[in-house]
Design brief:
mainly alpha, two-stranded antiparallel sheet, about 10% strand
Length: about 130
């Protein structure tokens, strides 16, 4: 439950789009947005997305189906042979969502640009650092 809330509150969906989805579906779409920032598309399997976002498979499928219906993303199904398939490729096509990701990337505390555990101003776990220690 905590993981799901953290993903949903990550700010990777514009508020207008997020209002159309449940908390669990927002977590899935936030994961798709994070993968899009890292790799330009999302190639995770349904099971992997469910595990990372802290939701079940059907929630992942429902979120992606609804996002496709609203014209927010496309899904390319990759068949190899007969009954064998590779993971689907989900791509965000919504101009509003892509602009939101582009703007949010500059202040993203999870990005490698700073603010992480190796950043000099990181204090970790909410503990206050004693500035007057000798």
């Amino acid at each position: 439950m905590e993981r799901r809330r953290r993903w949903a509150a990550s700010g990777r969906l514009p508020p207008g789009l997020a209002a159309r989805f449940t908390l669990a579906e927002q977590a899935v779409l936030a994961l798709v947005a994070a993968e899009t920032v890292r790799r330009k598309d999302c190639r995770l399997s349904i099971e992997n997305m469910a595990a990372v976002a802290g939701v079940c498979r059907s929630t992942v499928k429902n979120a992606i189906r609804e996002a496709r219906r609203l014209g927010l993303m496309t899904v390319e199904e990759r068949q190899i042979t007969g009954f064998r398939n590779d993971t689907n490729v989900a791509r965000i096509i919504s101009a509003e969502w892509l602009a939101w990701i582009r703007l949010a990337r500059h202040g993203d505390p999870l990005s490698n640009r700073g603010g992480g555990p190796h950043h000099p101003h990181f204090e970790g776990r909410g503990q206050k650092r004693d500035q007057h220690a000798y």
